[in-house]
Model the fold of this input.
Amino acid sequence: MTGIAQHTGAGTETEGLVARHRDVMMRSAPRPLAVMDHGEGAWIVDVEGRRYLDFLGGIAVNSLGYAHPVFVRTVAEQAARMAHVSNYFASRAQIDLAERLTRISGAGESGRVYYGNSGAEAIEAAFKLARLTRRRRVLALQSGFHGRTMGSLSLTGKPALRADFEPLVPGVEHIDSTLDALEQAMGDDVAALVVEPIKGEAGVLPLPAGYLEGARRITAEHGALLIIDEIQTGAGRTGAWFAFQHDGIVPDAIALAKGIGGGFPIGALVTFGAASDLFAAGQHGSTFGGNPLATATADAVLAEIERAGLVENAERRGRELVEKMAAISGGAIAEVRGRGLLIGVGLSGPSAQAVATRALELGLIVNAANESTLRLAPPLIIGDEEVQAFIDLLTRALEAA
Ligand SMILES: Cc1ncc(COP(=O)(O)O)c(C=O)c1O
Done:
């Protein structure tokens, strides 16, 4: 959670809770910016009663916003029926969700689904899938982010995050995000290429136009898997169910988490075609993976995204936000990147951190993905009111920074 500015106007209850947090939480946890209490729609309220418009969406997680009736009802009903069962047994919910994921991803009848509980676990499963090709080398992109467990960190191309934890899992090479670099690195000993369609943590950096199409061709020529990390871009956020679908390609696997659960922890790996035959019985698993509570909730969240047309809404509201930000005067916004409701706002002038600080004070949550980029990943449910409130608050934050 680096990147959101420290809230300075803490009241008594916040101060007490922040002190207790400092004394009990592992030092890896950053100092909290506020202590949150409850939310509704795109708004969240802290323990002092201050309201914030959440345009980070729990970092691309709260697809339906806070306390959506479908989410609340599904969690309550499924918890009352059966929250967990060992994976010696199946449940309707895990089958329903797997069928939905293979349908909306286009993996179809040859698609298969593995469940974990987070993005990192979805990536771990993808990494093990790559190893099952019996090839040693795995390619990933510089500045890409895939998680913080040892396997997913090995794929993450951010040296600062990796340095303290070497040696990491061997066999991973980080390359430039160009097709030339991929051509050069590729060989018949490469198991897989792992990529994010838009590098979210690096600052909402889309891959170059044509990259995924080229990567599909090059990986296929060498019999390597193309594994797409859709953890931040998936669940409709970019205006398609999954970002790779904008490019008309078919990957071998996609890693999912965040927005598919709408706030309930879940991760998944969906394989396509022949990649679905790589795992054999007993080669991977997780106690909680695919539990009825998580899978029923994710299935209901995705059903609601479909019913309410939120994939289309992401595309429409994203376009509106880009247009309205272009009309903000003052010249602080140099560039707007991304797709749908995963947006990077490139600033020229005030630092992203300074703007995020001012925004938080004014009641707007955005985050500084890097020194000069604000990241926006609001809930997919936002409408006219939230778009206008965001523009007003951002304008004031830019003026104050
Ligand atoms: C693209 C991407 N991959 C993987 C992860 C790791 O997911 P998690 O934090 O759920 O382990 C993230 C989290 O930010 C992410 O954005």
About this structure: The first strand starts at residue 36 and ends at 40. The pocket of pyridoxal-5'-phosphate is lined by residues 59, 118-120, 123, 145-147, 196, 200-201, 229, 231-232, 257 (CB under 6 Å).
